[in-house]
């Protein structure tokens, strides 16, 4: 037994003292504690698993702590439990050694004043959870007065007591975000400039032309694409840097009145709104990464979306300068395209957005495009007319430019569906950015907005996020730029007093279009001009190449007009079940019979039933092959992990294909399905194993050999990966590929000593660090300790070849 008089550095334990302890370390655990655990025969896991018996953490702040308790029901103890157990010669009860809660606000008494009840409850919970006290009464016990407004009796009284700090609710939120109390002086409510009230409608609004109401959704379907203003990703978690897109909006949910394309119109659009804690000070803060703190989501509300387009008549926009006169067109002006078929003749290919929205939402986009006369192809081909993309970084964009295709964003499609006319892009948001989202040209800029309301303000928020700047609804000395609609108002007055640049929307538009020099040229006269009738109008000089295909009008054939009604019938929403019962189509065929599942020619035992997936094939081919597989007794797999046969025409670097190399028994060509269907039974796979000599030569591997290696042993068995935030492909895709190869992705950055230990000690999972150019500085601590970090190709090419190359992909 160890003497209690010994120092912790002299503690030793028998080799079997901790043999029953299987632990996961969380936080900064000292080397001495880790030495005791190893010396006593404890087993460390590099990732949290239900096989562990203890989680050792230095505080409660780590997400693994709550996960250990809520998901795995594991005890969480402090490092002190290890040392005291070693001193006492026995494993002590773990209940007395749980980590203490973070006492960030310990000793503080906060008086909450003039805060709405819903937000007050949220703030109250935050403060008390982190050790502070809250009250509504203002007395001598108070250390802080939390109020959004510099007014009221409590505020006046607090000013007379220098020991009482007066702050806005942002002080609490930012202190929690930074994990330390912020300077109170920066959060005084007198620094907050409130938003101007909504402007009254124009005096000549009654002179606008009347607007026809859209048909109901039962006849027309969804009307337009909805843009997400909520700041949340689709799963409610932290979103990516690019603005995300919601479902297509249903017209029946709102009163939509699209404008005639020659007039100034107003359209009502339901957008998801969330009450944020910063709404108390009217700021709705968005940081550079696009994160918003949502405390109390409320029901969706309707807001007015103001469409202000200066060139929506039949006269196309022009680009003049340097002796040039370029004219841009949508449809051929000689053909009168009905508003409800405004996408007639448009064939879209969607790229980039697969990483931003769910597959079900993309299907909804496809349906709405079809309802308005257009078509969506599953893959790029020469028949494509429009490439729907987010930025210009993808190879699809470069190919589309070479082929003279029109490249636009989902924002353009949304606005076109709103105004019911396919016209050339007129906003910077309508064109793909010339830089990927990892580049932040306005990083460090803190931008406020004045004079813009409703959808114009939301568009500016999106533009600020795309530029990589931080948006604040309030205005203070910390703002670096103020975007003004007109040189007036309280914010503008304060900006002049504090010498903050006041710029128009064109400054932000130019940056998004790739003119990064505008960041250093804020004093140019064109950025000080606030008299433009359409402040969002883009400067076509910066987008000559992208706008090139718009110089030629989109031609329509008579067949397209004649086939329109037939195509629209295919995508008409199905009637309710009560009306569908017993109904028949034009040929007398019962619809219920048409939707019955396919009955196979023969049924196979479960162990012999192929479970098939397809990749790299168009939708028509997939549907045809799926029917044939099911008719001869096969099944379509739920996911790649349950797939036995992956069907592809060539070697691809898709998530499905790379995962299939590690997990599927066979990767075959479509000829395997065709041959099996002809013989009414599944034939030998060997004759139809996929062979792609071009790709195999390019990457220096043999697919057959890779599949053989994967069957013997998983490539990433006993291997863990940590990936920095901006690694491409994104984390969920890489996680699927890694797990299919037997590996594990950890979400928390591992300590240097853990990585070193994992690579030096046999029997424990190895940890590899995956990073990219923009995140390489985050790995400086690994480099200084001679720990290699790798690019994503270490995983992607490694899985394809089924071997780890430690030299080619090292940073």
TrEMBL record:
The keyword ATP-binding does not apply. One of its GO terms (cellular component) is nucleus. It is found in: Nucleus. Residues 13-99, 100-189, 338-424, 437-512, 609-690 form the BRCT domain. Residues 192-216, 570-606 are annotated as: Disordered. Keywords: DNA damage, Nucleus, Repeat. CDD domains: BRCT_PAXIP1_rpt1, BRCT_PAXIP1_rpt2, BRCT_PAXIP1_rpt3, BRCT_PAXIP1_rpt4, BRCT_PAXIP1_rpt5, BRCT_PAXIP1_rpt6. Residues 593-606 have a biased composition (Basic and acidic residues). Its main location: nucleus. SUPFAM superfamilies: BRCT domain. Gene3D superfamilies: BRCT domain. GO terms for biological process: DNA damage response; positive regulation of transcription initiation by RNA polymerase II. Pfam families: BRCT, BRCT_2, PTCB-BRCT, RTT107_BRCT_5. This is PAX-interacting protein 1. It comes from Branchiostoma floridae (Florida lancelet).
